[in-house]
Amino acid sequence: MSFGPLERLRASLAKDESFRVLQRLFLADGVKHWKGYATAFAFMGFMALSTGGMAWLMRDAVNSIFVHPTFWGVWGVALGVMALSVIKGASAYGQNITMARVGNRIVADNQKKAFDHLLGQEVSFYAIRHTAEISMRLQAGANAARDALNLVITSIGRDLLSLVVLVMVAVIQDPMLALVALVLMPAAVIGTRKLIKKAKNIFRKEFASGIKLSAISLEVIQGMRTVKAYTLEDTMRVRVHTYIDDVERAANKLVRTQAKSSPLMETLGGFAIGGVILYAGYNVMFAGKSPGEFFSVLTALLLAYEPAKRLARFNVDLAAHVIGAHMLFELLDMRAPEAEEKTLPDLPAGPGRVTFDQVEFGYRDNEKVLRGFDFVAEPGQTTALVGPSGGGKSTVISLIERFFTPSAGTVAIDGHDVTAFNRQSVRTHTALVSQDVYLFSGSVRENIGFGREGATEEEIVAAAKAAYAHDFIMGFEQGYDTPVGEHGAQLSGGQRQRIAIARAFLKNAPILLLDEATAALDSESEAEVQKALQKLQSSRTTIVIAHRLQTVVRADKICVVEQGRILESGRHDELMARRGRYYNFYQIQFAHEGEAGAEPQGEALLSA
Ligand SMILES: Nc1ncnc2c1ncn2[C@@H]1O[C@H](COP(=O)(O)OP(=O)(O)OP(=O)(O)O)[C@@H](O)[C@H]1O
């Protein structure tokens, strides 16, 4: 993976980043849901007060049983505790439900926001990032954003409030007694600080290993046929197991680090209770104090124990969520060039004349793929691009689609430089059938229907007929409702291609871009599709890339593309007469036919 998520996280998650991530979370999501959080907070307040009330009642419980036993006193205290427990139970329920609903909304909002942002990214964004990393940021990142907010709210609302109320109860009952216990509290919190840094590092490692694991397992599953065909099971097993072991190791390390806060708190908590028993026992036995206060403080302490423990671990737990939320924010902060240019005007409608003027382009610095590329594709004509593999033919189509932007020169449609218009409007002028047909899980009908929103059943069927797909679709038991499977896996290569052609026909755009669009068809289907294409071509600009010369001999213009330039162009006969590069290709491709100039029948590739 070229991305190196661990390195990026380490570099960007600076010391005060936790604070900034939290601040952003609160401003972006917390404020928006303030009503939900206020409700949850109110429930937590009730929880804290009822908990404090219980501790308070312990004094009366002990005194009314042991010191001044009265019938009504015992009843009063018992009913009081029951009433408080009902309030506490109801508040806990209310708080959980409210927090969960707000939390789920935050996850959904963030996922929508992140997904919309992904739609606005350029094609090149996806070329350098693994699907697993993007989906991890989308899933785990949104969950972490919710968990970070919830942790902060519950820590303040439930734990801190409970602690404050309980401490107040203890202080009111016996200030000295409370003091003895409270001295040890800050020590526990300070003790966990060292653990936080360690936990953050481990979290980062766990995330990075998790991304790698899901990336490699996704690849292996998707490439299972290749794995099996080349008996790569053992190689892949070793690879995947290594990553699983890494994740396991990080998880174990994390648990060890987190668990370190427990003995600290247990010990210090025990010391606090021991101190209270010593001091209070001495007071009750020798200073004549009532045991009620002692029990009340002890109960307050015991009840304070859990929230205090959680608060001491607060920072350690928060570290994980902050790192996750940071991953989501990183995704949201990346520029989304396609979304940003929505303000650019729409490309005006026109016949669809495509021109390239001295276009330079490279995917990598210092590696030019197109060099001074000049090219014209006229409306109503078919222009074919032929030439050796890697010459830059598909790149020409990518530039017309504005998947990439030239570094110099101009790509224009009807004389308008495409970079001056928003990409969506440029793409409404084009219908693309590329080498790798991509079908989405769903029915045949849906997949053809993606060509044009709101297309009628008749239009879909007409497009399928034109693409020579109707007959095989009707051969399926479920007809147009037949599921195509993941990436169209339940169809043959030729069937997938015909569905993609039907989709492009349905789009009915002025510029038709066919990149090896009929390569997977048998000769008979190809001849039929070619006939349909010829009908369509009369009213639009068609640009065809083909390795099989059979598909292009009738083109209005054939351009030979090699090393990012057009070497020669013209009609088949003209190029043959010129006896140049095209003539050579032709000779090589049809060498087995014996004589040059014979009608092409072979399917050899142009691989000179
Ligand atoms: N996304 C990409 N990132 C980096 N380099 C790329 C990318 N796509 C293509 N290239 C490189 O650009 C060059 C031209 O590729 P292109 O796909 O345009 O060639 P082509 O003529 O269509 O080849 P083919 O006939 O094999 O499909 C090749 O050297 C290829 O390695």
UniProtKB/TrEMBL annotation:
Topology of this chain in the membrane: Multi-pass membrane protein
Report the GO terms under cellular component.
plasma membrane
Where is it localised?
Cell membrane
Q: Name one GO molecular function term.
A: ATP binding
Which SUPFAM superfamilies does the protein's record reference? ABC transporter transmembrane region, P-loop containing nucleoside triphosphate hydrolases
The ABC transmembrane type-1 domain sits at: 38-320
From which domain of life does this come?
A: Bacteria
**Which Pfam families does the UniProt record give?**
ABC_membrane, ABC_tran
Q: Does the keyword Nucleotide-binding apply?
A: yes
Keywords from UniProt, A to Z, are: ATP-binding, Membrane, Nucleotide-binding, Transmembrane, Transmembrane helix
Q: Where is the ABC transporter domain?
A: 354-588
Instruction: Enumerate the transmembrane spans.
Output: 37-58, 70-91, 176-196, 263-282
Specify where it is mainly localized: membrane
* Role summary: Part of an ABC transporter complex. Transmembrane domains (TMD) form a pore in the inner membrane and the ATP-binding domain (NBD) is responsible for energy generation.
Tell me which PANTHER family the record gives.
ATP-BINDING CASSETTE SUB-FAMILY B, ATP-BINDING CASSETTE SUB-FAMILY B MEMBER 6
In the record, the note on similarity to other proteins reads: Belongs to the ABC transporter superfamily.
Entry protein name:
ABC transporter ATP-binding protein
State the organism named in the record.
Answer: Azorhizobium oxalatiphilum
